[in-house]
Amino acid sequence: MSTHYDKADLFAWMPLIGFDKNLPDKGVSKLMNRIQHTLDGVCLLLAHPDIIHQHEGMEEERVLPPDNCSYYARPYNEEQQRQEWTNHELKDLVQRLTNQGTECFVSIFGITLNHLFHQEWIYDHPELLFQNRNFTSQLHVLKRFRDGTYYEDFFADQICRVMEDYGFSGLHVADSFCPQIGVIKNGDFSIDMLEQFMEHTKIQLPQEIITDRIDSTELNAARADWIWEHYRADWIEFLCWRWEAFWKKICDRLHAIGKKVFVLGMYCSDPFDTVYCNGIDLRGIVNAGVDYLMPNMAANSCSIGRNRHWPYYQWANMIPLTDSYADQAKKYNMLAVKDATEEWDMIHHAPTFLDRDIGFLASYLRYQKDGSLKRCLDGHNICLADGVGEQEWHWLLERFDIGFGKMPVASLAPTFVWSDTVQKQMLREYITHRRWTPHKFLSELNWAGVHTGATVRCEDLTNQCGNLFVPDFDLLSEQEKQQLAAYKGGGVICTSAEDFCPEQYEIQPVFQVIDHDTPFRNKLFVYGMEIENKEELADLAAKTDDAPILEDPFHAPDSNHTLKDTMPYQKVSKGFLKVLCKLMVLPFAHLFESTHPVIPMVMEDGAIRLYLLNDDRLHYADAVIKTKQPIKEVKNISKFPLLPVRFSENGTFNFMSSHHPGNCRCFRVPIPQAGLGIVDLYLEDD
Fold it and tell me: Residue 24 and residue 592: Cα distance in Å, rounded?
């Protein structure tokens, strides 16, 4: 049994092929015996939404179509062939899971499969199909039937009936349902959606945009281009409002019968990207009643599965930023373990990547109003849990114990300050200037080897939060600016637009520089912190580089696929970023320095917990840490390194290097490829 994982929740996302209809309890005890740990929830991946659309009660037993019995009707997994389940057998399974104290969600996509496995409901209502620039496919849940009634009203009635008839604990939705397929700039600009837009915004579109009140891919593309050129921000804000209204209606109905709502919501992006690319405001849908969100930090599985680039930090930062923005909902990371349908397997083919995900994502922390820290994740939703054997579960739980074990009490690296106001203000700023968002600053710092230690919502800020990092300071509200100007808990490192004047808030910067050779010039200023090498930093910031600029930011090509493309941003010079990196490590430079990326935390017993990262996906790394004080002890926390760390007086190591610190102030931590090492460092008093 795990010893620490009771501090977080464990969900399993799995299709019916992971159970066995021929066993008396439908395979529930077999699953629980494998895991040897309580499952807090199971999301039964019935995949095709017709499990809801075509539900007509339980009076008659009927066989479910293959695309409900297995994800995309996969014929088999590692253990068995796909089985033909009936609606009565499914109800029995749901009851047996809930009898274990496990929440059981019906999990669906918004997929359409062109009648491949059964006669699909959607094709009797083609007006609800999603109309992209290039295709018409998948369910668009925000649209209306031909008679003008909303799909969501029909869906609310059907999902409540499904909940009561089967006994599910709630609804779980993912791909092509929320969020929908593709990015919104290529999305549905049908007459229905344009009319909804005009009704909500009172903006009257020109006649040529709604020509003849007909739809086609050609007209959709022309409308998309026109809206994106003239009313881009308004369209995005309309979709955010529309999603909030959708989920308010569904959540109200489900909550009224004691059921919960679990939404993927984002797709490999942070809260701002989710607004800009998906038209979904995560705080908005949580305010509407969504109980759980599922950040899908699948950078590893997507990159090895289809030979894509490795957007690790761009995706990883969705964890702390989503928790900071949508702070009232629980977040269960979609932990990419294996997926036979999509044909990737992290636990067998790239276990060091998976090990890193478990430890690193659990290191994201957020300060609360009382000054204490909480984890940004409330647990994991295992994707996908069918075919995961007993030894694999043991391997996972060992690492969950480490990730969700003892809590740090403070962060040594600067704390990132989240502002809802910046999130709101950034939309039009980004469209006009393509300036760096907070997420962009964080991910670029990470790729440069520098990490923040925790996050805090601006209204939760206390002097216990230590040194701070505040990007885009000029977009804060007046109250937030004054609050930060009066901060006494440590130094404050800020970026802003060039014309922002911190002195008007009685901030006296000890150092500031302005970027150059770029149309949008950021200012970097610091206060409340001692800086010795100011001239050296200023010279570094002044260096020129050949990175390209965006000549026309407004028309910069937007991402066409959030899994493959990155969003366009205006240039920030390399020297400016390097200066920011040097400032970010100053708060703990008096304690140690590391050759590899490190996140230092303070533990309750006085140890400095070091999360050490290796961004090389092919080779082991030897992270060398040099301390300013004598070392008392270094303890391994992660499963690797296996042996005690090695110490050295001169920074060279071999098989005979000591495993005892002696008088050494230097030690080495081996880290596997794309992996993570965690050690606790104890220093002697000066």
Answer: 59
Residue with tokens 């009704």: 199
Both tokens assigned to 484: 């930060």
Closest-CA residue to 554 (of 187, 229, 238): 229
Nearest alpha carbon to residue 333 among 8, 672, 71: 8
Whole-angstrom distance, CA of residue 366 vs CA of residue 327: 10
Q: Sort 24 into a burial class: Cβ within 10 Å, 0-12 / 13-18 / 19+.
A: exposed
Six-digit token pair at 115? 């009648």
| 361-375: b (≥16 Cβ within 10 Å) or e | bbbbbbbeeebebeb
Phi, psi of 85, deg, nearest 5? -90, 150
- Give strand ranges (E) for 531-665: 592-594, 598-602, 608-613, 621-627, 631-636, 646-647
Predicted confidence at residue 565, as pLDDT, reads 82
Whole-model pTM over 0.90: yes
Q: What residues does 634 pair with on adjacent strands?
A: 681
Q: What is the tens place of the pLDDT at every residue in 557-600?
A: 999 888 788 899 999 999 999 999 999 999 999 999 999 999 99
- How many residues does the structure list for the chain? 686
Cβ atoms < 10 Å from Cβ of 668: 18
DSSP state of 76: B
328, 468, 369, 292 alpha-carbon torsion, rounded to 10°: 10
d(CA 427, CA 446): 23
Q: Residue 134: which pLDDT band, with cuts at 50, 70 and 90? A: confident
User: Quick one: 10 exposed, middle or buried, by C-beta within 10 A (0-12, 13-18, 19+)?
Assistant: buried
- For residues 75 and 80, what is the distance between their CA atoms, to the nearest angstrom? 9
Q: What are the respective helix, strand and coil percentages of the chain, to the nearest 5?
A: 35, 20, 45
DSSP-assigned beta bridge partners for residue 523: 496, 514
Residue 686 has pLDDT above 70, yes or no: no
Cβ neighbours around 681 below 10 Å, total:
22
Q: What angle do CA 659, 664, 665 make, to 5 degrees?
A: 115
Per-residue pLDDT tens over the stretch 342-401:
999 999 999 999 999 999 999 999 999 999 999 999 999 999 999 999 999 999 999 999
For helices 390-403 and 28-35, angle between their N-to-C axes, nearest 10 degrees? 50
Q: What 3-state class would DSSP assign to 57?
A: coil
417 pLDDT exceeds 90?
yes
Q: Does the N-terminal peptide bond of residue 126 adopt cis geometry, omega within 30 degrees of 0?
A: no
What's the angle, vertex CA 383, arms to CA 97 and CA 291, rounded to 5? 65
Look up residue 212 and give its DSSP letter: G
What are 669's strand-pairing partners?
A: 623
Strands (E) located in 111-180:
129-131, 136-139, 170-173
Token readout for 113 is 């499969």
Q: How far apart are CA 393 and CA 12, in angstroms?
A: 11
Report residue 603 as tokens: 């533990």
Where would I find the H helices in 22-150?
A: 28-35, 50-53, 66-69, 87-99
Answer whether 491's CB lies under 8 Å from 529's CB: yes
State the CB neighbour count (10 A cutoff) for residue 460. Answer: 18
The whole-number pLDDT of residue 363 equals 97
> 103: which strand partners?
41
d(Cα 327, Cα 12) in Å, to the nearest integer?
23
pLDDT of residue 174 exceeding 80, the answer is yes
Residues 684 and 615: beta-carbon distance below 8 Å: no
Phi then psi for residue 608, to 5 deg, are -100, 110
Going from the C-alpha of 432 to that of each of 175, 335, 422, 581, the distances in angstroms are 30, 36, 15, 27
d(C-alpha 108, C-alpha 111), whole Å: 9
Q: Which residues on neighbouring strands pair with residue 624, listed in sequence order?
A: 668
Say if strands 379-383 and 330-336 run parallel, antiparallel, or are unpaired: parallel
CB 635 within 8 A of CB 680: yes
Q: Quick one: DSSP state of residue 150?
A: B
